[in-house]
C-alpha cells in the first residue's frame, strides 16, 4: 500500500478509535466492558500512529500516539502511557519541536512519579538537544542538562553542562564541574583516562580568565593526579602558558597545530583556544592554523 493509502487507513482507524472511546462513556457500556473498548481504542490509535509514520505525516503520528498515551493513563497503565508519550515526542521532533518537548515532559512526569529517574534523565537530555539544535535556546538546554545531571549523577550530562557554561562564558561554573568530574573519575580505573581531559578543560577555562590562575590550577592538577603530567594535554598547556607569557602568537599557534595533528581539536576546544589566543597582544580575530 502506498503512503497515501496508509494515511487514509490511519484516518479511518482514528475515527473508529474515537467512536470506541465515546461508546465506552455510555452508562450501560460503563457497566459492561467500557474498559475493553478503551483498550481497543488505544490499540487503534497506536496502529494509526505507526501508519502515519510510514506516510511520514509526523504531526498526525505524534497526535495519535498522544491520544493512546492519554487512554493508557485512563486505564491506569502508567508505563504504557509514558512509552506512548515518548513515541509521540519522537514523531513530533521531526515536525513540531515545541510539541515534542511537551510530550517528553509528560513522559518525564510519569517516570519521575514512578521513581524511574535514569530513564527520566535520558529524556531530559533529548529535550536539551531539541532546545540546542532546533529552538536554539541554550539557557533552556542547560537547565535540562542540569536536571539530567541531578537524576543521573552522571559524568556525561555534567560534562555537557560544563561545556555549555564555558561557551556562555560562565567559566567559574564550568571549572567547578570539570574539577568535580575530574576528581570523581581519576580514582576509577575504568574512567581514569578521561580525568586528564576534564583537568585540561578546567585549566583552559582558568586560562581564559587569568593566566596566573591557570598556572596555579595546573600545579594543583599535577599534584592531585600525577598521571596528568605526562599527558599531551598537560604538555600543551605548558607550551601555551609559555607562549602567552612571551606574548608569542606564532609559538602559541605552533603548539596548537602540533597537538591537533595527533588529536583532532573539536569545536569546543577550538573556541576556547581561540579565546585565549585573542588575549595575546596585537592578535586580531586570527585563527589557530
TrEMBL record:
Cellular localisation: Membrane
Gene Ontology process terms (BP): intracellular protein transport; regulation of synaptic vesicle priming; SNARE complex disassembly; synaptic transmission, glutamatergic
Cellular component GO terms, alphabetical: synaptobrevin 2-SNAP-25-syntaxin-1a complex; terminal bouton; vacuolar membrane
UniProt keyword Transport present: yes
Pfam families (UniProt xref): SNAP
Coiled-coil annotated residue ranges, if any: 128-181
Keywords, comma-separated and alphabetical: Coiled coil, ER-Golgi transport, Membrane, Protein transport, Transport
GO molecular function, one term: syntaxin binding
Matching Gene3D superfamilies: Tetratricopeptide repeat domain
Main location: membrane
Protein's membrane topology: Peripheral membrane protein
Family: Belongs to the SNAP family.
Role played: Required for vesicular transport between the endoplasmic reticulum and the Golgi apparatus.
Protein name: SNAB protein
Native source organism of the sequence: Hirundo rustica rustica
Amino acid at each position: 500500500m502506498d503512503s497515501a493509502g496508509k494515511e487514509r487507513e490511519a484516518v479511518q482507524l482514528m475515527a473508529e478509535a474515537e467512536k470506541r472511546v465515546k461508546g465506552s462513556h455510555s452508562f450501560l457500556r460503563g457497566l459492561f466492558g467500557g474498559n475493553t473498548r478503551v483498550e481497543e481504542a488505544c490499540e487503534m490509535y497506536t496502529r494509526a500512529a505507526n501508519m502515519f509514520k510510514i506516510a511520514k505525516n509526523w504531526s498526525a503520528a505524534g497526535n495519535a500516539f498522544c491520544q493512546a498515551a492519554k487512554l493508557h493513563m485512563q486505564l491506569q497503565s502508567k508505563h504504557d502511557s509514558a512509552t506512548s508519550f515518548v513515541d509521540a515526542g519522537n514523531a513530533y521532533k521531526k515536525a513540531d519541536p515545541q510539541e515534542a518537548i511537551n510530550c517528553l515532559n509528560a513522559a518525564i512526569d510519569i517516570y519521575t512519579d514512578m521513581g524511574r529517574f535514569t530513564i527520566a534523565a535520558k529524556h531530559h537530555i533529548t529535550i536539551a538537544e531539541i532546545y540546542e539544535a532546533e529552538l536554539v535556546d541554550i539557557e533552556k538546554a542547560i537547565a535540562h542538562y542540569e536536571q539530567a545531571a541531578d537524576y543521573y549523577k552522571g559524568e556525561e550530562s555534567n560534562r555537557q553542562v560544563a561545556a555549555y557554561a564555558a561557551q556562555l562564558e560562565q567559566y567559574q561554573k564550568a571549572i567547578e564541574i570539570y574539577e568535580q568530574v575530574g576528581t570523581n573519575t581519576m580514582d576509577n580505573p575504568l574512567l581514569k583516562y578521561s580525568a586528564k581531559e576534564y583537568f585540561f578543560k578546567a585549566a583552559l577555562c582558568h586560562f581564559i580568565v587569568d593566566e596566573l590562575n591557570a598556572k596555579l590550577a595546573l600545579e594543583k592538577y599535577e599534584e592531585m593526579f600525577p598521571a596528568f603530567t605526562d599527558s599531551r594535554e598537560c604538555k600543551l598547556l605548558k607550551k601555551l602558558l609559555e607562549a602567552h607569557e612571551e606574548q608569542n602568537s606564532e609559538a602559541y599557534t605552533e603548539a596548537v597545530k602540533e597537538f591537533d595533528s595527533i588529536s583532532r581539536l573539536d569545536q569546543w576546544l577550538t573556541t576556547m583556544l581561540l579565546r585565549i589566543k585573542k588575549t595575546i597582544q596585537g592578535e586580531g580575530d586570527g585563527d589557530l592554523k
